[in-house]
Design brief:
alpha+beta; three-stranded antiparallel beta sheet; three-stranded mixed beta sheet; 6 helices; about 40% helix
């Protein structure tokens, strides 16, 4: 009888633990983001070379938004110690104002903090690593085929800041209605 009670008690404990783990997994999800990797890229010979890392976040339907928000927090201490680095850091965690995905296009709207604080991201190597981290993070999603950017809802401000000049033709003269 005692052994039956022990077995029953063990079943209850295991059931409780698995229910807790199951409930936890229903409340969270994993997103994949990309940071620049110094280990695989001596002397930054390929400024756009990135490495995937995984983060656990609260479950949401806005997976691309969650991924960008994690990216913009920058590498963790452990990720930095493993040789990953980025333009993004805890200071840039609020960089994303909005992302709108429509007809295969992602419209990413940055906070003005970008222009005020990440000026060196517009250098040739800087822009390659900046773009690579964002684009590789976003292009993993099958609903995204092309990405457009704006600062404070103004695509012209972004493309001028990045020293690209004109807005992409698909933005119809820098139309900001989707940002």
């Amino acid at each position: 009888m005692r052994s039956a009670l022990k077995v029953f008690g063990l079943i209850l404990v295991v059931g409780f633990i698995s229910t807790s783990v199951s409930a936890q997994s229903k409340k969270s999800m994993t997103v994949k983001i990309y940071f620049t990797d110094s280990n695989d890229n001596p002397n930054m010979q390929d400024c756009g070379k990135v490495k995937a890392v995984f983060r656990t976040v609260p479950k949401t339907k806005g997976v691309a938004r969650a991924a960008l928000n994690e990216l913009f927090k920058g590498p963790t201490k452990q990720e930095r110690e493993a040789g990953l680095f980025s333009w993004f850091s805890p200071e840039s965690k609020g960089l994303l104002k909005n992302i709108n995905i429509k007809n295969g296009y992602a419209y990413v709207n940055f906070d003005g903090w970008l222009v005020e604080n990440l000026g060196n991201a517009t250098t040739s190597c800087g822009s390659a690593s900046f773009y690579s981290e964002i684009m590789t993070t976003l292009m993993q999603f099958p609903t995204i085929k092309k990405v457009f950017f704006a600062v404070e809802g103004d695509p012209a401000a972004y493309y001028e800041w990045m020293q690209i000049g004109e807005c992409p033709k698909e933005l119809n003269n820098c139309d900001n209605s989707n940002f």
